[in-house]
């Protein structure tokens, strides 16, 4: 299984930051890593980022609507992302679940729309600090695993992103043992649901990852 390193720019980035994408893509081309590289900039930069990346690294979106088109002001569809040059989309990020009220059913619908639109997905799950302190992290994450992942998830390319809400942007991260425990639990859930193909679905860790700690969170 080939690893995936994904960077979510969130609501950061304007045209000058495209130089960073070029620098990353150039570095990847010069010294190819043993991993796929993905950057998800804001939607305003997807088209230009894809042009700059020129296939050297993947470019994706941070969200998509469940519909192909319609009266959804401010939203983008999977087809629009693909038309702009994106090949991936993040769905169900914990910040969207928290601030935009996205439910497991909504996330599953977005993932299905993304697949039908020809995109690969990172489906995000995670727990709050209170849930972890109460010892419910594994059981809490099992619920979105069941409700956010549509039937028919194809292993090739697609991924589950474990992002504990309490670690996102806080500088605090789980221990290596906690991440390993959760990743093992997610793998068990995937295999129980999808059988052997569940062993090939990639699992990522996200939340305050930095150059100083990324090796520990593999």
Using only C-alpha atoms, the radius of gyration works out to 17 Å
- CATH-defined superfamily: Aldolase class I
So, CATH architecture? Alpha-Beta Barrel
β-strand percent reads: 15-25%
| Rounded average pLDDT | 92
Please bin the fraction of helical residues.
Answer: 25-40%
| Total number of helices | 8
How many E strands?
7
Question: How would you sum up this structure, described in words?
Answer:
The chain is of the alpha/beta class and 218 residues long. Helix content is 38%, strand content 16%. It has a seven-stranded parallel β-sheet with strand order 1-2-3-4-5-6-7. Helix 7 packs parallel to helix 8. The radius of gyration is 17 Å and the shape is globular. The two termini are 13 Å apart.
Which short descriptors sum up this protein?
globular, 218 residues, alpha/beta, TIM Barrel, 38% helix
Strand-helix topology:
Layout: E1 3-8, H1 18-30, E2 35-40, H2 46-53, E3 58-61, H3 78-83, E4 88-91, H4 94-99, H5 104-116, E5 120-125, H6 129-133, H7 137-148, E6 159-162, H8 176-194, E7 202-205
Parallel strand pairs: 1-2, 2-3, 3-4, 4-5, 5-6, 6-7
Helix pairs in contact: 1-2, 5-7, 7-8
